[in-house]
Design a protein that fits this description.
The chain has 1178 residues and is an alpha/beta fold. It contains 22 helices and 25 strands. It has a six-stranded antiparallel sheet. Helix 12 links the parallel strand 14 and strand 15. Helix 5 packs antiparallel against helix 15, helix 6 runs antiparallel to helix 13 and helix 6 runs antiparallel to helix 14. The chain starts with a strand and ends with a helix.
Length: 1178
């Protein structure tokens, strides 16, 4: 497995698509500073899942996208693809080539792909974890990361080894198991608590269950009694209903018969009315014909009489004319007499005309009275029939009007209620609309304050975050400073612990009375430590004993136990130093204090003067050559010798002083760290407070927005409600107006109908005698009128005759005078006139015979029609009377049927109520109720046995009184049981079942906990085994590599806590040749780099990885150390692929392929490749 190629597009300075084709062996990437070499390392780190922008030398992740230059626009995304050769199957995937791609867009979206298919970062990490490439990316050593690797804490170093050994998947398995264990532990505690609680609840619930069980038995008995009584009621009601249905059927049949007969009667009445409508005009016409014929008969009688009289007169006159001639004077006298008679007759005619007029008027009045009376009688007969029929119809109409008025009143009341409700809703909606408008206005005004509050809270939160971030950075800096001081202090303490005899005796006096070391028994003023150390020389490390014997014992002990050498000073409290320095000089003794060996210090330092510099010492010695002078820098000058300069080691006094200074500094740093931590705590609280204020402000703002939105929605709803309510009010007002108008019309119609009904009484039968009297009067008047008319006509004819006779006599007299021949003509004319008159009289007689016959026929027809009318009116009265009787019977039958229907509906409702009660309360349908609990079934009896159980005994016949007593007894028994929990049995069973289930769950959880603990133990054992194997091999290779890189040096890996292999860290001890220090922080830059490389190569050798990427790891090395490192790298080439970023020519010489990276003028990186091995072979 090795990296075949890497393609960069839009990543940092690689604006264009650039592909680096890699091969096994060593590939070097070279180029000037700033050309983009390290971007290749960053690309490899990034594509394998790096999430920290700082690790990629950026401030934020978007910084990896090409940002553009003066000649090229920025890009919108960065993409890196790396292709891995998997021919050996090192990766757990069924592909010989694996391409891992990562794409980042400028909006922050990121995509991962494996062979072109979208995947997760976790998938990539799991794919690479088995090959030794984990999240820590120890195979990629970026620029300047060597020191960070070396200065990592022990746990981080352990992480490097675990990652190389493939412990990560076991760690994940353990973490997963521990998460499950924590969750399971919570479940276990919860189940245990539930079990205890359920056991506590089970005891009282058992008692309730016993009571409920007994109550269930009593309730079963109670239910049986209720069912039997209910079945009895149901059957009896059903039988009653069936009987009523039979009665109703009979009533309906009788009502149908009456209804049919009533229809027949009404049809006959309608037929009679129709016949009366036809015969009435015929009767009137027959009467008119009869009266006209009578009148015509009288006229023809008069005509016949007149003709006979004229014929007789003419005959007599003709006979007289034939018998004798008359004298003209006689004729004139006759004429005069006739004229007188004519005048008398004319007076009589006028009187007759008056009589005729009166008779005609009397006849007309009599006929009118007769017609009116006949019409009145006919109308009265019709009114009687109509009144009798209309009364029933009017009553029905009044009832329907009253019912309709009641319905209209109810409808108006309902509409008014609905209108009032709608009006109330409209008012409420209007008020709500106004309220919502005010609330929205208020919310809008208050939201301005919320916006300012939110902005203020946001600015305060940002300020608090910045303050906290600054404090965290300060804490980190302080921690780094503290770690450096602690490392230096630990190194100084290790250095102060010498391995000579003094140290051995100080650690174990072995019976020698030792006061201590000189350095520990004195205190030196700050700044004079070097001077005192130089003045004391080797005596600074000496030990002080109380007497000479102790000194001898100490020397003997060191020699006998081979503890080494040491200076031993004997402290004598009475000894005094006689040496002193001249006045004007400062004795070194002035700057040293000791409460225990003051005289000894004085004797050692009283003759030594202290000055600031060597030149000052020379000046002092010129004047006082007999004294010893020491400078503050530790140079000793006498008149004969001088010792000083720079030194590679420090004395114990200086080391102790440094330790004291560093201890003080460490305390200050600790105080500073504590203060910073306190400030961080305060800032954290402040941040939490600001965050809370921010959240509250944001919540209030969101609440305000939500409230405004809700109010807006409610405002719209209220407006819609108001509109709909107002529309409903208008619609209801229109409906109420229409109903009121209809009510007024119906009330008026009801009043009219009621008045008409009240005004209608029993219509009396019309009086026919009056008609007959009037008819007789008409006949008399008609006879009088005919007679008067005949008398008038006769008088007129007599007048005309007399006038004619007079005229004739006059004319005759004149004619007699004028011509006798004409007399003969007149006599002939008279004779003819007489003949004509006789003919007229005869014809009138014949006409009168026909008229009499016609009058007889008209009288017969009139009598027939009158008899038919009288018979029809009688039949009509009979039929109408029968119709009224049938209507009354039909109404009674209808009312009876209606009452029976209501009664049966009520009966059915009661039966349905019983059925509903049986189904809902007792859960039994009617079929089962009748079949199993009917009165025909025997009733079981129940007894309580010794065990307290209710058992069924003998069966007894059903008796209602016994069942009612049984029902009352069971109800009393149920009442005596008191309050019953009807669900106790089910709850007890469910609780018992749940307790059993929880017990099983508890056992399963315990087994699961054991399994998880076994898994954790197995994982721990496996992790310990893998880690220990990897650690031992890494430690072994580290010692070998360190010895090769530091010939003569000593380096090793040690466990910080060997007793706990799961959490122990890994520490590094490195002692370059010729140096005593082992602390890494005290090494030089090159030594640190070589030590870090040694550790990495040891890991590489212990658990090889397919490839390694090294970015200028040899930059701080000289040629000798570089050569050693290159030798190690060439060894790694055999098993792994190396990609090295370098400036060193010697590193380039060992490369198999070389990539040159340069920066074009437009700020875009360009790559040039060269395969060196093939070139060298060529």
């Amino acid at each position: 497995m090795y990296l075949k190629s890497i393609t960069l597009k839009g990543f940092k300075s690689f604006a264009s698509a650039t592909t680096l084709r890699l091969e096994p062996g060593i590939t070097c990437v070279v180029g000037p500073n700033g050309s983009g070499k390290s971007n290749v390392v960053d690309a490899l780190t990034w594509v394998m899942g790096e999430q920290g922008a700082k690790s990629l030398r950026g401030g934020k992740m978007e910084d990896v996208i090409f940002a553009g230059t003066s000649g090229r626009a920025p890009l919108g995304r960065a993409e890196v693809s790396v292709t891995i050769d998997n021919a050996d199957g090192a990766l757990n995937i069924d592909y010989s080539e694996v391409t891992i791609s990562r794409i980042l867009f400028r909006n922050g979206q990121s995509e991962y792909q494996i062979n072109g298919e979208a995947s997760r970062l976790l998938d990539i990490q799991e794919l690479l974890s088995d090959s030794g490439i984990g999240r820590e990316m120890h195979v990629i050593v970026g620029q300047g990361q060597l020191d960070a690797i070396l200065m990592a804490n022990p746990d981080e170093r352990r992480g490097f080894i675990e990652e190389a050994a493939g412990v990560l998947k076991h760690r994940k398995r353990k973490e997963k198991a521990l998460r499950k264990l924590d969750s399971m532990q919570a479940n276990l505690a919860r189940v245990q608590d539930l079990t205890v609680e359920l056991r506590r609840q089970l005891r009282p619930l058992g008692k309730q269950a016993e009571v409920a069980k007994k109550a269930a038995t009593i309730q079963a008995d109670l239910r049986d009694a209720k069912l039997r009584l209910l079945a009895d009621d149901f059957i009896s009601m059903t039988k009653t209903l069936d009987a009523e249905v039979a009665d109703e059927t009979a009533l309906r049949e009788r009502r149908a018969i009456v209804d049919a007969e009533l229809d027949k009667v009404r049809s006959r009445e309608e037929a009679l009315d129709a016949q009366a409508a036809v015969d009435g005009p015929l009767l009137v016409k027959a009467q008119e014909t009869y009266y006209q014929l009578n009148s015509l008969r009288e006229r023809f009688r008069g005509t016949a009489s007149l003709a006979q009289e004229r014929s007789r007169f003419l005959a007599e006159e003709a006979e007289e004319a034939r018998t004798l001639g008359r004298d003209p004077e006689a004729l004139e006298r006759e004429a005069q007499a006739l004229r007188v008679e004519e005048a008398e007759l004319r007076a009589a005619v006028a009187s007759a005309n008056l009589s005729l007029t009166e008779a005609t008027n009397a006849l007309a009045q009599a006929e009118n009275s007769l017609k009116s009376e006949e019409d009145r009688v006919a109308a009265a007969m019709r009114a009687i029939a109509d009144a009798r029929e209309g009364t029933a119809r009017q009553e029905g109409h009044i009832k329907s009007l009253r019912a309709r008025l009641e319905a209209i009143a109810e409808e108006i009341a309902r509409l008014e209620k609905s209108r009032n409700d709608a009006q109330q809703r409209a008012d409420e909606a209007s008020r709500a609309y106004s309220t919502f408008e005010l609330e929205i206005a208020s919310a809008d005004s208050s939201e301005l304050g919320l916006d300012s509050q939110f902005e203020s809270a946001k600015s305060k939160l940002d300020s608090a975050k910045k303050t906290l971030s600054d404090l965290v950075d300060n804490e980190r800096n302080t921690e780094r400073e503290k770690n450096a001081v602690e490392a230096k202090l630990e190194a100084l303490r290790i250095t102060s612990k010498s391995n000579d005899g003094a140290a051995a005796l100080l650690s174990n006096s072995r019976g020698v009375k030792i006061l201590g070391s000189v350095s520990s028994l004195i205190s030196i003023e700050k700044g004079y430590e070097s001077a005192v150390a130089a003045a004391l020389g080797s005596l600074a490390d000496a030990i002080v004993v109380q007497d000479l014997n102790s000194a001898v014992s100490a020397l003997t002990t060191m020699r006998s136990e081979n503890l080494g050498q040491a200076d031993v000073l004997v402290f004598d409290e009475n000894s005094r130093s006689a040496d002193s320095i001249p006045s004007g000089l400062t004795s070194l003794n002035n700057y040293v204090q000791s409460s225990s060996i003051a005289s000894l210090v004085t004797s050692l330092l009283s003759a030594t003067a202290v000055v600031d510099s060597a030149r000052d010492a020379a000046d002092v010695l010129r004047n006082h050559p007999q004294i010893r002078v020491v400078t503050r820098d530790g140079d000793i000058v006498t008149s004969t010798r001088a010792r000083g300069g720079s030194k590679s080691t420090s004395s114990l006094i200086e080391i102790n002083a440094l330790i004291a200074d560093l201890t003080t500094k460490l305390e200050e740093i600790n105080h500073k760290a504590d203060r910073i931590r306190f400030e961080i705590s305060t800032a954290t609280n402040e941040l939490a407070s600001r965050q809370s204020e921010y959240d509250q402000a944001l919540g209030k703002l969101n609440e305000s927005d939500a409230r405004i939105a809700a109010l807006t929605e409610q405002l719209a709803v209220a407006g819609q409600n108001a509109k709909s309510a107002a529309a409903e009010v208008d619609r209801l007002n229109v409906s109420i107006a229409e109903a009121t108008s209809a009510k007024s019309r119906d009330e008026n119609e009801l009043n009219i109908a009621s008045n008409q009904l009240s005004m209608q009484g029993e219509t009396p039968e019309p009086d026919h005698a009056q008609v007959e009297v009037i008819r007789a009067q008409v006949s008399t008047a008609r006879s009088t009128e005919v007679e008067a008319r005949l008398a008038v006509r006769t008088s007129e004819e007599r007048v005309d005759s007399l006038a004619a006779r007079a005229k004739a006599l006059e004319d005759a007299a004149q004619a007699e005078r004028d011509a006798s021949e004409r007399a003969i003509s007149r006599r002939g004319a008279r004779a003819r006139g007489a003949v004509i008159s006789q003919s007229v009289a005869e014809a009138a007689y014949e006409v009168l015979i026909h008229i009499e016959r016609s009058i007889a026929k008209a009288a017969t027809e009139r009598a027939r029609l009158e008899d038919a009318r009288a018979q029809r009116e009688g039949e009509t009265l009979t039929i109408r009377s029968r119709g009224r009787e049938l209507s009354t019977e039909l109404e009674q039958l209808t009312n009876s049927v209606h009452r029976d229907e209501i009664a049966r509906a009520e009966q059915r409702m009661r039966i349905e109520a019983l059925e509903l009660k049986a189904v809902e309360e007792l859960g039994v349908d009617t079929t089962i109720l009748v079949n199993e609990y009917g009165p025909h079934n025997d009733v079981p009896t129940f007894l309580e046995n010794e065990a307290g159980e209710i058992v069924t005994t003998e069966l007894i016949p059903y008796r209602r009184d016994q069942q009612e007593k049984r029902l009352a007894a069971t109800e009393r028994s149920l009442t005596l049981l008191g309050k019953i929990n009807p669900l106790a049995l089910e709850e007890y069973d469910a609780l018992e079942e749940r307790l059993k289930f929880l017990a099983e769950q508890l056992e399963d959880l315990k087994n699961t906990k054991k399994d998880l603990l076994d898994i954790v133990k197995e994982v721990d054992d496996r992790v310990q085994q893998i880690f220990m194997e990897a650690y031992e091999e890494t430690a072994k290779h580290f010692e070998e590599i360190f010895a090769r890189l530091f010939p003569g040096g000593d380096g090793r890996l040690i466990l910080t806590n060997p007793d706990d292999l799961l959490s122990t860290g890994v520490d590094v001890e490195a002692r370059p040749p010729g140096k005593r220090v082992k602390r890494l922080s005290l090494l030089s830059g090159g030594e640190k780099s070589l030590t870090a490389v040694a550790m990495l190569v040891a890991i590489f050798k212990a658990r090889p990885s397919p490839f390694y990427v090294l970015d200028e790891v040899e930059a701080a090395l000289d040629d000798v150390n570089l050569g050693r490192l290159l030798g190690v790298l060439e060894e790694l080439r055999a098993s792994s692929q190396l990609i090295i970023i370098t400036h060193q020519k010697r590193t380039m010489e060992i490369a198999d392929a070389l990539y040159g990276v340069t920066m074009r003028g437009d700020g875009v990186t360009e790559v040039i490749s060269q395969r060196l091995r093939e070139s060298e072979t060529a």
